[in-house]
């Protein structure tokens, strides 16, 4: 079940990665945040991981939404 969930999420996310790596220039920020998330998880700092995860998702979503609105 976990594998199928991750696979489904991956398929959904792939279409947005082109924006992240291209016109949004968000790749390095995203990679840095992923590294920090892993550090928090490895150190069992659940609260910091949750805060960063929420921020990461919201920031990326807002950036993408703003970019797409400018193109309409």
UniProtKB/TrEMBL annotation:
It comes from the Bacteria. This is FCD domain-containing protein. It comes from Marinomonas rhodophyticola. Keywords: DNA-binding, Transcription, Transcription regulation. The lineage of its organism: Bacteria, Pseudomonadati, Pseudomonadota, Gammaproteobacteria, Oceanospirillales.
């Amino acid at each position: 079940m976990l594998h199928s969930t991750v696979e489904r999420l991956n398929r959904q996310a792939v279409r947005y990665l082109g924006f992240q790596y291209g016109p949004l220039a968000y790749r390095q920020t995203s990679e840095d945040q992923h590294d920090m998330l892993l550090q928090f998880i490895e150190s069992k700092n659940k609260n910091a991981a949750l805060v960063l995860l929420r921020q990461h998702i919201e920031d990326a979503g807002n950036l993408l939404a703003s970019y797409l609105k400018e193109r309409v």
